[in-house]
From TrEMBL:
<keyword id="KW-0677">Repeat</keyword>
<dbReference type="GO" id="GO:0008380">
    <property type="term" value="P:RNA splicing"/>
</dbReference>
<dbReference type="InterPro" id="IPR011990">
    <property type="entry name" value="TPR-like_helical_dom_sf"/>
</dbReference>
<protein>
    <submittedName>
        <fullName>Suppressor of forked protein (Suf)</fullName>
    </submittedName>
</protein>
<dbReference type="GO" id="GO:0005634">
    <property type="term" value="C:nucleus"/>
</dbReference>
<keyword id="KW-0508">mRNA splicing</keyword>
<dbReference type="Pfam" id="PF05843">
    <property type="entry name" value="Suf"/>
</dbReference>
<keyword id="KW-0539">Nucleus</keyword>
<dbReference type="InterPro" id="IPR008847">
    <property type="entry name" value="Suf"/>
</dbReference>
<dbReference type="GO" id="GO:0006397">
    <property type="term" value="P:mRNA processing"/>
</dbReference>
<keyword id="KW-0507">mRNA processing</keyword>
<feature type="domain" description="Suppressor of forked">
    <location>
        <begin position="34"/>
        <end position="119"/>
    </location>
</feature>
<feature type="region of interest" description="Disordered">
    <location>
        <begin position="1"/>
        <end position="30"/>
    </location>
</feature>
Amino acid sequence: MEETLAEQEDRNLNSSSSSSSSDDDDEAAEDLRIKTLEKSVAENPFDYDTNVQYIQSLRKFGRLKQLRQARESMNERFPLSSEMWQEWIKDEVSLCTSSEAFTEVEKLYERAVQEYLTLGIMYVKLALDGI
């Protein structure tokens, strides 16, 4: 089962505060990969695969603010796949802490339905209705 952003944030917060050189190396590699992908997207914003890789990297490392921005930017240029919509909605649901946040998730769902109506997205809607 894939980890949600909220679970990633919890894991990151609960990790020990002492850093080893291996942890530092991993973080440096993570930063370099994200910066490289960010630069590639900026230079060629219509490269679909690079946009997807950038979003996947941001999601993997829990970079929420950048992730939201990257998803919005990609969606301005391309229709998102049903899987990308499902991940986005799932991530936002996992971070919901208020009725206002839930309203934003509903708006996101409505955008997804307008763009890409599938059984998978309908399943997410059913799950959201159960919250």
